[in-house]
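Following the same procedure, sequence and fold were stored together, as reproduced here.

>
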Amino acid sequence: MLFVGDDWAEDHHDIELMDASGRRLARARLPEGVAGMARLHALIGEQLGEDADETAEQVVIGIETDKGPWVQALIAAGYRVCAVNPLQASRYRERYGMSGAKSDGADAHMLADMVRTDSHQLRPVAGDSAEAAAIKVVSRAHKSMIWERTRHMQRLRHALRDYFPAALEAFEELTTPDALELLAKAPDPASAAKLTLTQIRTALKRARRRGDIDTKAGKIQAALRAEHLGQPAVVAQAYATTIRAATAVLATLNEQIKTLQGQVEQHFGQHPDAEIVLSQPGLGPILGARVLAEFGDDQHRYTDARARKNCEDHGVSSQAVA
């Protein structure tokens, strides 16, 4: 067996090769990219000999990530790659010194020794298909974009509370197209009070609002024209400038979230396991895509049902539905 510690940075990798007894066999700093990967294969080949390709499964590599072209190249070469959680690495580092100080060379040694002594406790990077990896990319991006919209909406809400509380009464949801359109058109109390019913009805219709449009428009106009405590005119105008920017950002996020949703549904619909995932109660295309993305489709990832349940208990399912 050959154990490799790979302490990665953006432009290089500090590598240490170790045998089963813990003896250092080689150490090097390799550049990120094809040249660095070729040099790593050469270092491993020097230790394994002419049968390096046939004995690649005897190479165990510890690295603090499970993403990126470098990791994919390691997996493609047939090596066993263990993605070490940075918190695990931090705790393990304390075995080598009370300070827990981090250095690239020392971390490469620590990672090599960690996979030598504790590889049975570490989970190898799953061999998910490219289709599952694509679903993970778009579903996580879609979820992150929704989180980002929520953060911007909260900033908008706080700003309106400071100078324009009537808007919070007029619009139940600040991320809807009609609310964003009207706030962009009239971002301060004075201009909002001048909005006509026709302007409000037009915005509601463009947003494809259902129900009694006239009644809704009347309630919005009444709320915007009601008396509220406010700020001096110059301060309100300053806030209005920030509100126009915030509504523009939210409108863009709405558009991109819709685009990403289509991509999630498309990628998920093409996966052969989609029908199985959707057969579970409560799962639609978006939530189903997230579940598939987080659990993966590597049939050898979980040794049994209990292992999969343990993974679920440790947050994979909550990550999917968040």
